[in-house]
From TrEMBL:
GO terms for biological process: phosphorelay signal transduction system. Pfam families: HTH_18, Response_reg. The modification 4-aspartylphosphate is found at residue 54. This is Response regulator. Residues 2-119 form the Response regulatory domain. GO terms for molecular function: DNA-binding transcription factor activity; sequence-specific DNA binding.
Length: 552
């Protein structure tokens, strides 16, 4: 801590130095000035916590210095030592934030007491400043999440945009626009290399893609890009349509999307598919534009040469009979249980032979296949959990230590012309089932604890709807095992930990008076405002409203 002593008499400055045990007060630097003008320059340089000043000095007196401090450095603690018992000077001291007015000759006890009070006030204010800075930094980290939430919520047809403008005042993403066009970047169309590279770090992929798109859109304020929190595999692109940009035309929109895709190719060595909606009134029509873009993506013919840009006006619902995975599940399950690579190959070949007979496979049909495959695996995992009596299953093959191949439902293998490569998909499907069979046969009862990864997962996904079963499924663990193990390793119940993380984040968001309690609840993962309030009060002893008032 630093202090500046201001007095035109040198012997007074030396007396102040000698009268006080500065080390006991935590003051490590003492600086001196002979008048207010000299002191102002010194204060700007050394930035002290406390200033002790005389009142009557040449060039610039104490009252002028106090006025300058009140304007430029109001946080500094101010103590006056004067030889004049003058009401005008005392009143001026108080008006300009002076805390103590001491008379010469200096009383050591009075000066020491004044300094102790000044140090205590500075320390208290410094702690408050540090807390406010930390809080501000965390709020700024949450701002991108707020933006994603606001623009994702528009897709539900809600009317939250007006409040959103206030909540993120100053954000360049907000502008007055009478119409918008929503496009959707489909992360599921990524190359297998990109899908594998970011399989365990999806947030980094979202961050990279939104930054690429924003960089292109920022030129001329053409729109914004954000993560769609209502979908696991989408980046939303809002194009602003107004009188300043006749760019709502098909050619202008596709030109910008093409530029974004070129940047994706340069950065990620991969292009993506985009669904293009229709121009609609903003903000209320955003949901309609989004649905049109989704319809265009759903109707992509994956067996046709890849176009990358799909328009809603070209979308047509075309029904064609597709093999249902459920019809093949039993033969696939028995092949896995047999442990025979030949039986697995034969069972997979029968399914893919039927797929190859289809004249077209739409993206929507492929998504249904992915969903059916995920449900099939869930049933198999549930059966294994029951047979293992709740013991942990390893995510790797303990027999040979090799990594599990990519889940075939998570990739979209394409040939050199951008068409769905059924040969590669069949190979991935067969390899996955073979690896599953090997893991089942060689499953080990011993594996490293997954609890640190569980904690990271919760901290990254606290704002989503999470249940114990969701978390257990994410790590291929039984609910009983993960619940027991989490308590053993952390001393806290898993659900209690999740609630605590959510409430900590809620406390920060409640500091913004423009967010309603219901919005804060939803942003930290609670769909029910009343339940959120009940949990909040249980953990803090205050209702959200009381907490907000106490910390206003």
């Amino acid at each position: 801590m630093k202090i500046v002593i201001v007095d035109d008499e040198r012997h007074v400055r030396e007396a102040v130095r000698l009268l006080i045990d500065w080390e006991s007060l935590g003051i490590s630097e003492i600086h001196e000035a002979a008048n207010g003008q000299e002191a102002a320059a010194l204060i700007d340089s050394v930035r002290p916590a406390i200033v002790i000043t005389d009142m009557m000095m040449p060039v610039q007196g104490g009252l002028d210095l106090l006025a300058w401090l009140q304007t430029h450095r109001p946080d500094i603690q101010k103590i006056v030592i004067s030889g004049h018992d003058d009401f005008h000077l005392v009143r001026g001291t108080m008006q300009h934030g002076g805390q103590d007015y001491l008379l010469k000759p200096i009383d050591p006890e009075q000066l020491a007491g004044a300094l102790r009070r000044a140090v205590a006030r500075w320390s208290e204010q410094d702690q408050s400043r540090r807390q406010a800075l930390a809080r501000s930094m965390e709020i700024n980290q949450l701002r991108p999440v707020m933006r994603d939430r606001i623009f994702s919520d528009l897709l539900g047809g809600g009317d939250s945009y007006g409040h959103a403008q206030l909540a993120l005042q100053g954000e360049p993403v907000f502008r007055q626009s009478s119409a918008c066009l929503v496009a959707v970047l489909d992360l599921g169309s990524a190359s297998s290399e990109v899908a594998e590279r970011y399989a365990h770090n999806r947030d980094l992929l979202y961050f990279t893609l939104t930054n690429i798109a924003d960089e292109v859109l920022r030129q001329g304020s053409r729109g914004i890009a954000c993560r769609n929190l209502r979908s696991e595999d989408e980046i939303l692109i809002y194009f602003w349509i107004d009188a300043n940009w006749a760019g709502g035309s098909d050619a202008a929109v596709q030109a910008l999307l093409s530029e974004i895709n070129d940047c994706c190719l340069l950065t990620l060595k991969c292009r993506f598919d985009f669904g293009i909606g229709i121009a609609q009134p903003f903000p209320k029509g955003a949901a309609n534009s989004y649905q049109a873009a989704k319809a265009a993506l759903r109707d992509r013919d994956l067996l046709a040469e890849r176009a990358y840009y799909y328009r809603s006006d070209a979308a047509a619902v075309r029904a064609s009979a597709a093999p249902r995975l459920e019809e093949y599940e039993e033969s696939l399950r028995l092949a896995v249980l047999s442990g025979s690579d030949k039986q697995i190959r034969d069972a997979a070949s029968r399914l893919f032979a039927d797929l190859r007979r289809m004249p077209r496979i739409s993206s929507e049909q492929f998504e249904r296949w992915r969903t059916a495959f995920a449900e099939m695996l869930q049933r198999w995992r549930a059966a294994e959990t029951a047979s293992a009596d709740g013991q942990q299953r390893s995510g790797h093959s303990p027999g040979d230590g090799s990594d599990e191949p990519p889940n075939p439902s998570d990739i979209l293998p394409l040939d050199e012309r951008g068409r769905l490569d059924l040969d590669r998909l069949e190979t991935a499907f067969r390899d996955f089932l073979a690896a599953w069979s090997r893991r089942r046969a060689a499953a080990s009862q011993q594996s490293q604890s997954a609890i640190p990864a569980v904690i990271r997962f919760i901290e990254q996904h606290y704002n989503k709807e999470l249940t114990l079963q969701d978390i257990a499924s994410q790590f291929y663990l039984s609910r009983e095992y993960i619940s027991r193990r989490f308590k053993q390793e952390t001393g806290e119940n898993l659900i209690d930990f999740l609630c605590r993380i959510r409430i900590d984040k809620a406390k920060l968001l409640l500091g913004n008076p423009l967010f309603k309690i219901a919005q804060v609840a939803e942003m930290v993962g609670y769909a029910d405002e009343k339940y959120f309030s009940k949990v909040f009060k249980k953990l803090t002893g205050l209702s959200p409203n009381q907490f907000r008032k106490n910390n206003a």
